[in-house]
Amino acid sequence: MFTRIDHVMICVPDLEQAIAQYQDLGFNIHHGGSHPGKGTHNAIAFNQDDYVELLAIRDRDECERAGQSSRSHDGGLARFIGAGGGIRYIIVQSDALEGDVAAMRARGVDVSEVADGARRTPAGLELRWKVALLGAANPLPLLFIQHLTPVELRRAQVPGGGQHPNGVQGLERAYIVTSDAPSAAALYARVLGMPQPPLQKGTVIMSDMAVFQIGPTGLGIAQPYAPGPASEALERRGPGPFQALYRTASMQAAARWMHDHGLPPLPRGVRNTGEQAMLAPPELAGGAYIGFVGNP
Question: Domain range holding 113?
């Protein structure tokens, strides 16, 4: 069963620079370690039950060799980063990945076998997981993961894990922009094994949206209806993930932290829920739109 969005993978050209950007946004973010044989390294900002991942190339030759495998999701990573980076994948968590892969195949979804994954943290802790990738017949920006390391140990890899100056508690929703939301939502519904949601109007990203609720997190398939973040992302990069929205305990605390760290006031809007949201643009967030919503 798919239980939640586990994290978004934000691919950046320079890990240290991106860490500094996310620290200015108020995330408690630290180096996460290297991926053996992948040529990449990352940084992690752990929330209560999900996290932010910044990923960069550590060894270009090793990364390119790894990307040639049909079982790798790293193919084209350098090209993606060279085009501006940002959110490349939305990773969906499963509590029984082999069963979910079998169910996807029964629905006619092209998906890989389950493979093992691991990385070692700077403190020497080995984190282990299982992963499955969509195949060429279903080239969606989703990965599927089942963690083998308990969440308490994963959170402990980051000093002060789950505590951020911006008050972020967890991921609210991740968005994928498209030029045809109904058709795209039908494909995501088949892949996820969920009913296709009706369209609703998104007033901050100026888009019609089909929102899949995966546990406590939402996956929004957005089609722009007016100029705004979604239309800008679609024009700049084409269809794909472009925004992650995080719930904070205090919008005021988040805004104060960013002001104190030299950031300009973030653009604000009102969601269709009536809540205020503010949005960090790609130039401040490693090529991604990063949104905040929550109490004043």
Answer: 2-156
